[in-house]
């Protein structure tokens, strides 16, 4: 692989809410680097969240994997996420889309 994805960076309108959401839902851990940045670990890929006061527009859809879509969908909702596309089938599996408390849209898929 010539250029593997090494780091994913998101914007966040509220770092504490964002950390709580990803920590509760997916078990990610965080290291704060001042009041406007936190990095995350235990996600399979390193990344971080940068505080912003501007509207967030995603340029890429990050897709996560989870074996039980119903279970993780319920956890997303319980932690404050919003479902933007209910579970649907595609060749090779099923997935749904959601937004986190800052408005970042992601998807979760399973076979």
Give a structural overview.
The protein is α/β, with parallel strands linked by helices. Strands 1-4-3-2 form a four-stranded mixed β-sheet, with helices on one face. A four-stranded mixed β-sheet has the order 5-8-7-6, covered by helices on one side. The protein contains two helices and eight strands, in the order E-H-E-E-E-E-H-E-E-E.
What order do the helices and strands come in, and which of them pair?
Elements: E1 7-12, H1 15-26, E2 29-32, E3 37-41, E4 46-51, E5 62-65, H2 69-78, E6 82-90, E7 93-99, E8 105-110
Parallel strand pairs: 1-4, 5-8
Antiparallel strand pairs: 2-3, 3-4, 6-7, 7-8
Instruction: Extract low-pLDDT stretches.
Output: none
Rg (C-alpha, Å): 14 Å
Shape: globular
Helix-and-strand structural type = alpha/beta
* Average pLDDT level: 92
Summarize the structure in short:
The chain has about 110 residues and is α/β, with parallel strands linked by helices. It is about 20% helix and about 40% strand. A hairpin with a 2-residue loop joins strand 6 and strand 7 (about 95-100).
